Amino acid sequence: MSFRCSLLVLFLALSSCTSWETTKISTQEILHQKWEAVSLNEVGEYPSFKSCDTTQDRLNHKRCFENIIQQTLVNELATNEMVVTQAINDTVWIDFVINEKGAFCLDSLHISKPIKQEIPLLEAWIQDAVLQLPEARPATKRDLPVKAKFKIPVVLKVD
User: Fold this and answer.
1) Which of 17, 52, 97, 134 would disulfide-bridge 64, Cβ 3.0–4.6 Å?
2) Domain locations in the chain as residue ranges
3) pLDDT tens column, 104-148
4) What are the beta bridge partners of residue 108?
């Protein structure tokens, strides 16, 4: 019996308590690990319109959303009379943000100099057209609404 007790004491003495200790991870380290896991350039779910709810896969959902925006902008711009001295066939790029509440905000416009000279009111018309976009459901990331930035091309063909 004393041999067993001696073995037990020896075993306990040789095994350290450090293997039983828990390591403490700081909240800073946990936060750092979480931020590395989150891609800030991607959203979990794209913003959407009610009419895009029938699309199932992510790519078609995004295309539906972008098509509605493009069509709305083109329709709104078509209500303005564009008189030009030379034919225009160019693309205007519109950067906008959809905030956490689904509201659109014009971020920037990329309009070439020839178009600015031929259609000086185009920028104001685009700003008005953005105001006509229907309210969207915001993008989400981990089921939380987030801002999302989009760049949409609008092709201008004026003879």
Assistant:
1) 52
2) 2-37, 50-158
3) 899 999 999 988 998 899 999 999 998 888 888 898 888 888 888
4) 95
